[in-house]
């Protein structure tokens, strides 16, 4: 197959059908074999090997897969009037719903939407299935989040008997057939433009940005296309009269760095399509955390402490499951006016015990319970390491050893009979996961990695 494909390299009219994968030897608008209009043609189609794969409206797609009655209905993944939108299907997006939008605004835009609370365990399970399919294509898979990753298929032509572009199209079809959701593929010569390409023509997209066209393509794009240029920095650039990437291309590196520091160097390079970062598959986790958003703002320690305990237990369970420990405990609070407070404390040695995470978080929380009302509470650990040196015997706190043994016994019972089999006095009788009401659970990822976006 690859020998046949080699003859069409760099011929923009010699593409393939994304549905049946049949080669297209003319410039007809539809596949000559199956009639599909979904054709892939590009001058560098068979030369490029760096890809970005992104699942389409992942959480919503999984829910629609599991409940076919929702297929043609707007679906929002989130929950509670106080929460935010985790994701929305494309039908809801047409109505103006966007990720991270407050739930009340989302429901104003699309009142007929079906709202589903996130089921992270299910999404993680499906994400791992897709990740395994990626790793069958190449060992160079670099996850960005639960539903997207970079892949480098360079040198895999002999293994697959076809060029990377065809392998990726076949992969997309396999995910749709075997997993039941769709993905979009971006193919380019660098990570920056592969990610940009995957955002085109979603859902079920397959877009290519070649090296020869990169500078011209970028010149016509807004500066917000560049990684790191958010609303605040875009406003700074706009104040300087810079709104389009083409304007950056006409500026010298020294001038950009003088104005914007190290970010100036990024603007210079990415505006010209220069990105020499390679795909790495060996990233380590950066932090493990859990958080929740309340239905009503809470200020009382009597309300906040049970929640803190429940979240600490959840973080501990994740650490134990992953075989890691953390040395720095981080407390996160969001006030009723959406201001975020983070407090942290470094321990003498790493821990994975709920008891230590909770007690450290409690000391941090005590200083913040001054009458301020909070809409969100979270706890986590960073500075992760293996469990080899975690939780050594405490010669000062003689009760710590007993609490650790008790926690081990509780873990054993929960493993056998379920998470609800045993509760501590902090959370017993306090409702779902220690919360006084039923707040929307706006949780962070199970394990957050350094490449994940905030």
TrEMBL record:
Residues 425-454 are annotated as: Disordered. One of its GO terms (biological process) is DNA repair. GO terms for cellular component: cytosol. The record marks 59 as: Substrate discrimination. Its EC number is 2.7.7.7. Residues 50-230 form the UmuC domain. It is found in: Cytoplasm. Its cofactor is Mg(2+). The active site is at 148. Poorly processive, error-prone DNA polymerase involved in untargeted mutagenesis. Copies undamaged DNA at stalled replication forks, which arise in vivo from mismatched or misaligned primer ends. These misaligned primers can be extended by PolIV. Exhibits no 3'-5' exonuclease (proofreading) activity. May be involved in translesional synthesis, in conjunction with the beta clamp from PolIII. Monomer. This is DNA polymerase IV.
